[in-house]
Design goal:
binds uridine-diphosphate-2(N-acetylglucosaminyl) butyric acid, four-stranded mixed beta sheet, single chain, alpha/beta, 432 residues
Protein backbone atom coordinates (compact mmCIF):
# COMPACT_ATOMS: atom_id res chain seq x y z
CA UNK A 1 0.00 0.00 0.00
CA UNK A 2 2.85 2.33 0.87
CA UNK A 3 4.15 1.83 -2.67
CA UNK A 4 1.09 3.68 -4.00
CA UNK A 5 1.66 6.83 -1.92
CA UNK A 6 5.38 6.84 -2.62
CA UNK A 7 4.80 6.41 -6.38
CA UNK A 8 2.40 9.38 -6.35
CA UNK A 9 4.91 11.44 -4.34
CA UNK A 10 7.77 10.45 -6.65
CA UNK A 11 5.90 11.37 -9.86
CA UNK A 12 4.64 14.62 -8.32
CA UNK A 13 8.18 15.63 -7.35
CA UNK A 14 9.02 16.38 -11.01
CA UNK A 15 8.40 19.99 -11.99
CA UNK A 16 9.96 20.43 -15.44
CA UNK A 17 11.15 18.56 -18.49
CA UNK A 18 14.33 19.48 -20.35
CA UNK A 19 14.42 18.57 -24.03
CA UNK A 20 17.35 18.80 -26.43
CA UNK A 21 17.00 18.81 -30.21
CA UNK A 22 16.82 15.44 -31.91
CA UNK A 23 17.82 14.86 -35.54
CA UNK A 24 16.26 11.45 -36.03
CA UNK A 25 14.82 8.48 -34.15
CA UNK A 26 15.54 4.84 -34.98
CA UNK A 27 14.28 1.95 -32.85
CA UNK A 28 11.11 0.80 -31.16
CA UNK A 29 8.83 2.14 -28.47
CA UNK A 30 6.12 0.20 -26.60
CA UNK A 31 2.70 1.65 -25.92
CA UNK A 32 1.19 1.23 -22.43
CA UNK A 33 -2.37 0.35 -21.44
CA UNK A 34 -4.98 3.04 -22.10
CA UNK A 35 -5.45 5.61 -19.33
CA UNK A 36 -9.03 6.30 -20.40
CA UNK A 37 -9.85 2.57 -20.27
CA UNK A 38 -8.06 1.93 -17.00
CA UNK A 39 -10.08 4.66 -15.24
CA UNK A 40 -13.59 3.26 -15.93
CA UNK A 41 -12.23 -0.24 -15.22
CA UNK A 42 -10.99 0.95 -11.81
CA UNK A 43 -14.49 2.34 -11.16
CA UNK A 44 -15.92 -1.01 -12.33
CA UNK A 45 -13.82 -2.81 -9.71
CA UNK A 46 -16.50 -1.60 -7.26
CA UNK A 47 -18.84 -4.18 -8.84
CA UNK A 48 -16.60 -7.19 -8.04
CA UNK A 49 -14.92 -8.72 -5.02
CA UNK A 50 -11.59 -9.33 -6.70
CA UNK A 51 -10.21 -7.84 -9.90
CA UNK A 52 -6.79 -8.08 -11.50
CA UNK A 53 -6.06 -5.58 -14.25
CA UNK A 54 -3.17 -6.40 -16.58
CA UNK A 55 -1.40 -4.03 -19.00
CA UNK A 56 -2.22 -1.38 -16.42
CA UNK A 57 -0.63 2.06 -16.99
CA UNK A 58 1.07 3.51 -13.92
CA UNK A 59 0.58 7.24 -14.30
CA UNK A 60 -0.78 9.97 -12.03
CA UNK A 61 -4.48 9.72 -13.01
CA UNK A 62 -4.65 5.95 -12.55
CA UNK A 63 -2.71 6.16 -9.28
CA UNK A 64 -5.22 8.76 -8.07
CA UNK A 65 -7.97 6.32 -9.12
CA UNK A 66 -6.34 3.61 -6.98
CA UNK A 67 -6.09 6.08 -4.08
CA UNK A 68 -9.87 6.68 -4.35
CA UNK A 69 -10.51 2.92 -4.22
CA UNK A 70 -8.28 2.69 -1.15
CA UNK A 71 -10.33 5.41 0.56
CA UNK A 72 -13.55 3.55 -0.35
CA UNK A 73 -12.21 0.55 1.59
CA UNK A 74 -10.74 -1.57 -1.20
CA UNK A 75 -7.45 -3.43 -0.72
CA UNK A 76 -4.90 -2.64 -3.38
CA UNK A 77 -1.84 -4.59 -4.49
CA UNK A 78 0.29 -3.12 -7.26
CA UNK A 79 3.18 -4.37 -9.35
CA UNK A 80 4.46 -1.62 -11.67
CA UNK A 81 7.31 -3.69 -13.10
CA UNK A 82 4.91 -6.45 -14.23
CA UNK A 83 2.15 -3.95 -15.09
CA UNK A 84 -0.71 -5.31 -12.96
CA UNK A 85 -2.91 -4.22 -10.07
CA UNK A 86 -5.16 -6.34 -7.82
CA UNK A 87 -8.19 -4.76 -6.21
CA UNK A 88 -10.11 -6.72 -3.59
CA UNK A 89 -12.52 -6.49 -0.67
CA UNK A 90 -15.79 -4.72 0.08
CA UNK A 91 -16.96 -1.12 -0.32
CA UNK A 92 -16.74 0.43 3.16
CA UNK A 93 -17.29 4.10 2.38
CA UNK A 94 -19.23 5.87 -0.39
CA UNK A 95 -17.52 9.28 -0.35
CA UNK A 96 -15.05 10.38 -3.01
CA UNK A 97 -13.52 13.41 -1.29
CA UNK A 98 -12.79 16.78 -2.88
CA UNK A 99 -9.04 16.70 -2.20
CA UNK A 100 -8.62 13.75 -4.54
CA UNK A 101 -11.49 14.16 -7.01
CA UNK A 102 -10.35 17.73 -7.75
CA UNK A 103 -7.03 16.35 -9.05
CA UNK A 104 -8.49 14.65 -12.15
CA UNK A 105 -11.69 14.69 -14.16
CA UNK A 106 -11.84 10.89 -14.41
CA UNK A 107 -12.89 10.84 -10.73
CA UNK A 108 -16.48 11.39 -11.94
CA UNK A 109 -16.51 7.71 -13.00
CA UNK A 110 -16.60 6.62 -9.36
CA UNK A 111 -20.15 8.00 -9.23
CA UNK A 112 -21.26 5.26 -11.67
CA UNK A 113 -18.92 2.69 -10.08
CA UNK A 114 -20.37 3.25 -6.60
CA UNK A 115 -23.98 3.28 -7.85
CA UNK A 116 -23.39 0.04 -9.78
CA UNK A 117 -21.51 -1.52 -6.87
CA UNK A 118 -23.76 -0.56 -3.93
CA UNK A 119 -26.57 1.70 -5.16
CA UNK A 120 -25.40 4.88 -3.45
CA UNK A 121 -22.62 7.43 -3.80
CA UNK A 122 -21.36 10.75 -2.48
CA UNK A 123 -18.89 12.21 -4.96
CA UNK A 124 -17.28 15.63 -4.95
CA UNK A 125 -18.51 17.63 -7.96
CA UNK A 126 -15.72 17.73 -10.55
CA UNK A 127 -14.65 21.30 -11.39
CA UNK A 128 -13.90 22.86 -14.77
CA UNK A 129 -10.48 22.47 -16.29
CA UNK A 130 -8.05 24.10 -18.66
CA UNK A 131 -9.64 22.69 -21.84
CA UNK A 132 -13.22 23.80 -21.15
CA UNK A 133 -16.04 24.00 -18.61
CA UNK A 134 -16.82 20.27 -18.93
CA UNK A 135 -20.29 20.06 -17.39
CA UNK A 136 -21.78 16.73 -16.22
CA UNK A 137 -25.43 17.63 -16.80
CA UNK A 138 -25.92 14.53 -19.00
CA UNK A 139 -24.61 12.19 -16.26
CA UNK A 140 -27.10 13.71 -13.81
CA UNK A 141 -29.97 13.83 -16.30
CA UNK A 142 -29.55 10.09 -16.86
CA UNK A 143 -29.63 9.41 -13.11
CA UNK A 144 -32.75 11.55 -12.63
CA UNK A 145 -34.36 9.77 -15.57
CA UNK A 146 -33.90 6.36 -13.97
CA UNK A 147 -35.43 7.70 -10.77
CA UNK A 148 -32.30 8.04 -8.62
CA UNK A 149 -32.60 10.51 -5.77
CA UNK A 150 -30.07 13.30 -6.34
CA UNK A 151 -28.89 16.08 -4.09
CA UNK A 152 -26.06 18.53 -4.59
CA UNK A 153 -24.84 19.73 -1.23
CA UNK A 154 -21.61 21.45 -0.22
CA UNK A 155 -20.06 20.66 -3.60
CA UNK A 156 -20.94 16.95 -3.34
CA UNK A 157 -23.37 14.94 -5.46
CA UNK A 158 -25.33 12.53 -3.27
CA UNK A 159 -27.12 9.88 -5.27
CA UNK A 160 -29.16 6.82 -4.35
CA UNK A 161 -30.75 4.31 -6.73
CA UNK A 162 -34.23 2.85 -6.53
CA UNK A 163 -34.54 -0.94 -6.78
CA UNK A 164 -35.64 -0.72 -10.41
CA UNK A 165 -35.13 2.01 -13.04
CA UNK A 166 -38.13 4.37 -13.32
CA UNK A 167 -37.80 4.28 -17.13
CA UNK A 168 -36.48 1.71 -19.56
CA UNK A 169 -34.61 3.97 -21.98
CA UNK A 170 -32.55 7.16 -22.12
CA UNK A 171 -31.13 9.19 -24.99
CA UNK A 172 -28.13 11.46 -24.42
CA UNK A 173 -28.53 15.01 -25.80
CA UNK A 174 -24.89 14.90 -26.91
CA UNK A 175 -22.16 12.33 -27.17
CA UNK A 176 -20.26 11.99 -23.91
CA UNK A 177 -17.58 9.39 -23.17
CA UNK A 178 -17.60 9.34 -19.36
CA UNK A 179 -21.37 10.04 -19.40
CA UNK A 180 -21.90 6.81 -21.37
CA UNK A 181 -19.48 4.96 -19.08
CA UNK A 182 -21.21 6.21 -15.92
CA UNK A 183 -24.59 5.07 -17.27
CA UNK A 184 -23.15 1.62 -18.11
CA UNK A 185 -21.54 1.25 -14.68
CA UNK A 186 -24.80 2.21 -12.95
CA UNK A 187 -27.01 -0.05 -15.08
CA UNK A 188 -24.66 -3.02 -14.65
CA UNK A 189 -25.68 -3.14 -10.99
CA UNK A 190 -29.45 -2.89 -11.63
CA UNK A 191 -31.48 -5.95 -12.51
CA UNK A 192 -33.46 -5.59 -15.74
CA UNK A 193 -33.34 -4.35 -19.29
CA UNK A 194 -32.48 -0.84 -20.46
CA UNK A 195 -31.88 0.96 -23.77
CA UNK A 196 -29.27 3.75 -24.00
CA UNK A 197 -29.31 5.93 -27.13
CA UNK A 198 -26.79 8.33 -28.68
CA UNK A 199 -23.91 6.72 -26.79
CA UNK A 200 -20.17 7.31 -27.29
CA UNK A 201 -18.40 4.61 -29.34
CA UNK A 202 -14.81 5.34 -28.27
CA UNK A 203 -12.72 2.14 -27.96
CA UNK A 204 -12.45 2.84 -24.22
CA UNK A 205 -16.26 2.60 -23.94
CA UNK A 206 -15.97 -0.66 -25.91
CA UNK A 207 -13.41 -1.94 -23.41
CA UNK A 208 -15.79 -1.25 -20.51
CA UNK A 209 -18.60 -3.01 -22.42
CA UNK A 210 -16.39 -6.08 -22.95
CA UNK A 211 -15.48 -6.05 -19.27
CA UNK A 212 -19.14 -5.84 -18.16
CA UNK A 213 -20.01 -8.67 -20.55
CA UNK A 214 -17.35 -10.79 -18.84
CA UNK A 215 -19.04 -9.95 -15.51
CA UNK A 216 -22.33 -11.38 -16.81
CA UNK A 217 -24.12 -8.29 -18.15
CA UNK A 218 -25.67 -8.81 -21.60
CA UNK A 219 -24.95 -5.82 -23.84
CA UNK A 220 -26.04 -5.65 -27.47
CA UNK A 221 -25.06 -2.76 -29.69
CA UNK A 222 -26.55 -1.34 -32.85
CA UNK A 223 -24.63 1.80 -33.84
CA UNK A 224 -25.15 4.40 -31.13
CA UNK A 225 -27.84 2.31 -29.37
CA UNK A 226 -27.05 -0.12 -26.56
CA UNK A 227 -29.38 -2.71 -25.03
CA UNK A 228 -28.24 -3.64 -21.54
CA UNK A 229 -29.63 -6.59 -19.63
CA UNK A 230 -28.17 -7.09 -16.18
CA UNK A 231 -28.88 -9.92 -13.74
CA UNK A 232 -28.34 -7.39 -10.89
CA UNK A 233 -25.23 -6.77 -8.81
CA UNK A 234 -25.74 -9.82 -6.58
CA UNK A 235 -25.62 -12.15 -9.59
CA UNK A 236 -22.53 -10.77 -11.33
CA UNK A 237 -19.28 -12.68 -11.47
CA UNK A 238 -17.29 -12.07 -8.28
CA UNK A 239 -13.73 -12.24 -9.50
CA UNK A 240 -11.99 -11.55 -12.79
CA UNK A 241 -8.67 -10.90 -14.53
CA UNK A 242 -8.85 -8.40 -17.38
CA UNK A 243 -6.30 -6.85 -19.75
CA UNK A 244 -6.55 -3.11 -20.49
CA UNK A 245 -6.50 -2.20 -24.23
CA UNK A 246 -3.48 -0.29 -25.62
CA UNK A 247 -3.55 3.50 -25.36
CA UNK A 248 -4.47 4.77 -28.83
CA UNK A 249 -3.61 8.37 -27.90
CA UNK A 250 -0.15 7.46 -26.60
CA UNK A 251 0.34 5.39 -29.78
CA UNK A 252 -0.83 8.31 -31.92
CA UNK A 253 1.55 10.68 -30.12
CA UNK A 254 4.54 8.44 -30.98
CA UNK A 255 3.31 8.01 -34.56
CA UNK A 256 3.35 11.81 -34.92
CA UNK A 257 6.93 11.78 -33.62
CA UNK A 258 7.80 9.07 -36.15
CA UNK A 259 6.29 11.19 -38.96
CA UNK A 260 8.71 13.96 -38.00
CA UNK A 261 11.79 11.98 -37.01
CA UNK A 262 11.38 8.25 -37.84
CA UNK A 263 14.37 6.55 -39.45
CA UNK A 264 12.19 4.47 -38.97
CA UNK A 265 10.36 4.29 -35.62
CA UNK A 266 8.49 1.10 -34.67
CA UNK A 267 5.49 1.71 -32.38
CA UNK A 268 4.58 -1.58 -30.66
CA UNK A 269 1.63 -2.94 -28.66
CA UNK A 270 -1.07 -0.86 -30.31
CA UNK A 271 -4.37 -1.67 -31.96
CA UNK A 272 -4.33 -0.25 -35.53
CA UNK A 273 -8.13 -0.60 -35.74
CA UNK A 274 -8.43 2.14 -33.10
CA UNK A 275 -6.21 4.52 -35.06
CA UNK A 276 -7.98 4.65 -38.44
CA UNK A 277 -8.31 8.39 -39.00
CA UNK A 278 -5.00 9.17 -37.27
CA UNK A 279 -3.19 6.80 -39.65
CA UNK A 280 -5.09 8.32 -42.59
CA UNK A 281 -4.11 11.90 -41.64
CA UNK A 282 -0.44 10.98 -41.04
CA UNK A 283 -0.32 9.30 -44.45
CA UNK A 284 -1.92 12.40 -45.99
CA UNK A 285 0.80 14.50 -44.31
CA UNK A 286 3.43 12.40 -46.11
CA UNK A 287 4.41 9.74 -43.54
CA UNK A 288 5.15 6.21 -44.68
CA UNK A 289 3.49 3.67 -42.44
CA UNK A 290 3.64 -0.11 -42.40
CA UNK A 291 1.09 -1.96 -40.26
CA UNK A 292 2.01 -5.47 -39.08
CA UNK A 293 -0.22 -6.97 -36.36
CA UNK A 294 0.09 -4.80 -33.27
CA UNK A 295 3.07 -2.80 -34.59
CA UNK A 296 3.25 0.20 -36.89
CA UNK A 297 6.58 1.20 -38.43
CA UNK A 298 6.75 4.84 -39.46
CA UNK A 299 9.27 6.55 -41.73
CA UNK A 300 9.43 10.34 -41.56
CA UNK A 301 7.68 12.41 -44.24
CA UNK A 302 10.11 13.67 -46.91
CA UNK A 303 8.00 16.79 -47.29
CA UNK A 304 5.48 17.41 -44.54
CA UNK A 305 2.18 18.44 -46.16
CA UNK A 306 -0.42 20.69 -44.49
CA UNK A 307 -3.77 19.19 -43.41
CA UNK A 308 -7.40 20.06 -42.79
CA UNK A 309 -8.56 18.45 -39.55
CA UNK A 310 -11.83 18.58 -37.62
CA UNK A 311 -12.13 16.86 -34.27
CA UNK A 312 -15.27 14.81 -33.64
CA UNK A 313 -16.40 11.83 -31.53
CA UNK A 314 -14.98 8.40 -32.47
CA UNK A 315 -14.57 7.20 -35.18
CA UNK A 316 -13.78 10.83 -36.11
CA UNK A 317 -10.47 12.57 -35.49
CA UNK A 318 -9.80 12.51 -31.70
CA UNK A 319 -9.65 15.81 -29.82
CA UNK A 320 -6.94 14.11 -27.72
CA UNK A 321 -4.65 14.09 -30.82
CA UNK A 322 -5.33 17.67 -31.88
CA UNK A 323 -2.48 19.34 -29.95
CA UNK A 324 0.16 16.82 -31.14
CA UNK A 325 -0.91 17.29 -34.80
CA UNK A 326 -0.83 21.08 -34.33
CA UNK A 327 2.79 20.85 -33.15
CA UNK A 328 3.68 18.67 -36.15
CA UNK A 329 1.91 20.91 -38.68
CA UNK A 330 3.64 24.01 -37.32
CA UNK A 331 6.56 23.06 -39.59
CA UNK A 332 4.54 21.73 -42.57
CA UNK A 333 5.09 23.10 -46.08
CA UNK A 334 1.91 25.20 -46.21
CA UNK A 335 -1.10 26.27 -44.14
CA UNK A 336 -3.19 23.82 -42.11
CA UNK A 337 -6.67 24.38 -40.69
CA UNK A 338 -7.54 22.62 -37.44
CA UNK A 339 -11.11 22.82 -36.19
CA UNK A 340 -11.74 21.86 -32.54
CA UNK A 341 -15.37 20.77 -32.14
CA UNK A 342 -15.29 19.01 -28.76
CA UNK A 343 -13.79 21.39 -26.18
CA UNK A 344 -14.14 25.18 -26.31
CA UNK A 345 -10.73 26.04 -24.89
CA UNK A 346 -8.34 23.46 -26.26
CA UNK A 347 -5.84 25.70 -28.08
CA UNK A 348 -3.69 26.78 -25.12
CA UNK A 349 -0.67 24.96 -26.59
CA UNK A 350 -0.76 27.18 -29.69
CA UNK A 351 0.35 30.22 -27.65
CA UNK A 352 3.33 28.24 -26.32
CA UNK A 353 4.14 26.90 -29.80
CA UNK A 354 4.14 30.50 -31.09
CA UNK A 355 6.71 31.32 -28.40
CA UNK A 356 8.85 28.64 -30.06
CA UNK A 357 8.53 30.35 -33.44
CA UNK A 358 5.32 28.78 -34.79
CA UNK A 359 2.83 30.91 -36.70
CA UNK A 360 -0.62 29.96 -35.44
CA UNK A 361 -3.65 32.20 -35.36
CA UNK A 362 -6.90 31.23 -33.61
CA UNK A 363 -10.18 32.27 -35.21
CA UNK A 364 -13.15 31.01 -33.19
CA UNK A 365 -12.73 27.25 -32.91
CA UNK A 366 -10.19 27.03 -35.76
CA UNK A 367 -6.40 27.16 -35.55
CA UNK A 368 -4.80 28.44 -38.74
CA UNK A 369 -1.31 27.00 -38.75
CA UNK A 370 1.10 28.54 -41.25
CA UNK A 371 4.06 26.21 -41.52
CA UNK A 372 7.44 27.75 -40.60
CA UNK A 373 10.92 26.44 -41.54
CA UNK A 374 11.90 25.62 -37.96
CA UNK A 375 10.94 25.98 -34.30
CA UNK A 376 13.33 27.31 -31.67
CA UNK A 377 13.64 25.86 -28.16
CA UNK A 378 12.27 28.07 -25.36
CA UNK A 379 10.99 27.89 -21.80
CA UNK A 380 7.28 26.99 -22.16
CA UNK A 381 4.37 26.09 -19.91
CA UNK A 382 2.26 22.93 -20.14
CA UNK A 383 -1.43 23.82 -19.75
CA UNK A 384 -3.07 20.40 -20.03
CA UNK A 385 -2.18 16.80 -20.71
CA UNK A 386 -2.19 16.69 -24.53
CA UNK A 387 -0.82 20.26 -24.74
CA UNK A 388 2.24 19.04 -22.85
CA UNK A 389 2.70 16.13 -25.31
CA UNK A 390 2.59 18.70 -28.13
CA UNK A 391 5.36 20.67 -26.42
CA UNK A 392 7.53 17.55 -26.08
CA UNK A 393 7.17 16.95 -29.83
CA UNK A 394 7.94 20.61 -30.55
CA UNK A 395 10.98 20.51 -28.25
CA UNK A 396 12.42 17.47 -30.05
CA UNK A 397 12.14 19.05 -33.52
CA UNK A 398 13.23 22.57 -32.43
CA UNK A 399 16.68 24.06 -32.59
CA UNK A 400 18.12 24.66 -29.12
CA UNK A 401 16.92 23.55 -25.72
CA UNK A 402 13.31 23.54 -24.47
CA UNK A 403 12.27 23.58 -20.83
CA UNK A 404 8.63 22.62 -20.18
CA UNK A 405 7.26 23.92 -16.87
CA UNK A 406 4.19 22.44 -15.07
CA UNK A 407 5.14 18.99 -16.34
CA UNK A 408 2.70 17.26 -13.93
CA UNK A 409 0.11 17.61 -16.72
CA UNK A 410 2.14 15.22 -18.90
CA UNK A 411 2.73 12.80 -16.03
CA UNK A 412 -1.04 12.53 -15.48
CA UNK A 413 -1.44 10.63 -18.73
CA UNK A 414 1.81 9.27 -20.22
CA UNK A 415 3.59 6.35 -18.55
CA UNK A 416 7.37 6.82 -18.43
CA UNK A 417 7.58 8.99 -21.55
CA UNK A 418 11.05 10.28 -20.55
CA UNK A 419 12.44 6.73 -20.19
CA UNK A 420 10.79 5.51 -23.39
CA UNK A 421 12.26 8.41 -25.39
CA UNK A 422 15.68 8.07 -23.74
CA UNK A 423 15.79 4.43 -24.91
CA UNK A 424 15.52 5.81 -28.45
CA UNK A 425 18.50 8.11 -27.83
CA UNK A 426 16.47 11.30 -27.22
CA UNK A 427 17.77 13.73 -24.61
CA UNK A 428 14.60 14.21 -22.58
CA UNK A 429 14.96 14.60 -18.82
CA UNK A 430 12.54 15.16 -15.96
CA UNK A 431 13.80 17.71 -13.45
CA UNK A 432 12.72 18.16 -9.81
N1 LIG B 1 -20.52 17.53 -22.17
C1 LIG B 1 -21.63 18.22 -21.72
N2 LIG B 1 -22.37 17.65 -20.71
C2 LIG B 1 -22.04 16.46 -20.14
C3 LIG B 1 -20.90 15.77 -20.60
C4 LIG B 1 -20.16 16.34 -21.63
O1 LIG B 1 -21.95 19.30 -22.21
O2 LIG B 1 -22.76 16.02 -19.23
C5 LIG B 1 -19.72 18.09 -23.28
C6 LIG B 1 -18.29 18.43 -22.88
O3 LIG B 1 -18.20 19.71 -22.27
C7 LIG B 1 -17.56 18.33 -24.19
C8 LIG B 1 -18.29 17.20 -24.91
O4 LIG B 1 -19.56 17.08 -24.26
O5 LIG B 1 -17.74 19.52 -24.91
C9 LIG B 1 -17.59 15.84 -24.87
O6 LIG B 1 -17.17 15.57 -23.54
P1 LIG B 1 -17.06 14.09 -22.95
O7 LIG B 1 -18.03 13.95 -21.84
O8 LIG B 1 -17.10 13.10 -24.04
O9 LIG B 1 -15.60 14.14 -22.32
P2 LIG B 1 -15.15 13.38 -21.02
O10 LIG B 1 -15.91 12.12 -20.91
O11 LIG B 1 -15.15 14.31 -19.86
C10 LIG B 1 -13.29 11.90 -22.11
C11 LIG B 1 -11.82 11.71 -21.93
C12 LIG B 1 -11.07 12.95 -22.44
C13 LIG B 1 -11.43 13.13 -23.92
C14 LIG B 1 -12.95 13.23 -24.09
C15 LIG B 1 -13.39 13.31 -25.52
C16 LIG B 1 -11.71 10.29 -19.97
C17 LIG B 1 -11.36 10.12 -18.55
N3 LIG B 1 -11.53 11.49 -20.50
O12 LIG B 1 -13.65 13.05 -21.36
O13 LIG B 1 -9.69 12.68 -22.32
O14 LIG B 1 -10.83 14.29 -24.41
O15 LIG B 1 -13.59 12.08 -23.49
O16 LIG B 1 -12.96 12.22 -26.23
O17 LIG B 1 -12.10 9.34 -20.63
C18 LIG B 1 -7.40 13.22 -22.11
O18 LIG B 1 -7.18 12.01 -21.96
O19 LIG B 1 -6.49 14.07 -22.30
C19 LIG B 1 -8.78 13.69 -22.07
C20 LIG B 1 -9.11 14.96 -21.85
Amino acid sequence: MEILSSLIREINSFKKMQIKPCKGIKGSITVSGAKNSALPLLAASLLVEELTLENFPFLLDTLYGLEILKRLGKEIEINPSEGWVKIGGEIEDITVPFEISSLFRGSVLFLGGLLGGCGKARVSYPGGCAIGSRPIDQHLKFLEHIGASLEVEGGYIKAQLRDEPANQNFSFDLITVTGTENALLTLAGMEGEFILENVALEPEVGDLINFLRRLGVRIENDGRILRIISPGRENLRKSLTYKVIPDRIEAGTYLVLGTLLGEPLKVKNLNPDHLGVVIQKLTEAGANLKIEGDTITVWRAETLKPLYIETSPYPGFPTDMQAQFTAMLSIAAGTSFIVENIFENRFQHTFELNRMGANIVIKGNTAIVKGVKRLRGAPVKATDLRASAALVIAGLIAEGETLIHHIHHLLRGYEGMDKKLQKLGCEVYLIR
